[in-house]
Write a structure and sequence with these properties.
alpha+beta; two-stranded antiparallel ribbon; 2 strands
């Protein structure tokens, strides 16, 4: 078990080994949940920054919708359609 100390400003410093293990950096968000026997600190949703595949399945196709192509998101072509 790791013990941390609360500062006068209410801040906790997590040991470097724990930050590395969970991929925590400055600005990382953590969830604090009150439970009957204490507090639980969790990392809400971790994605690997170096893996595109880690985001697979995060965006679902609408029921009855058609798959989109990369060209559908080309801003220049969308502006050209508006001017025509």
């Amino acid at each position: 078990m790791t013990v941390v100390t609360l500062s006068g400003k209410g801040q906790l410093v997590l040991p470097a080994e724990i930050r590395r293990r969970f991929g925590l950096t400055a600005g990382s968000r953590l969830e604090l949940t009150e439970e009957a026997d204490g507090l639980r600190l969790t990392v809400p949703h971790r994605l690997s920054a170096e893996s595109v595949e880690s985001g697979y399945g995060m965006v679902a196709l609408r029921p009855g919708g058609k798959p989109r192509r990369l060209a559908d998101f080309d801003a220049a072509s969308l502006l050209a359609k508006d001017r025509a």
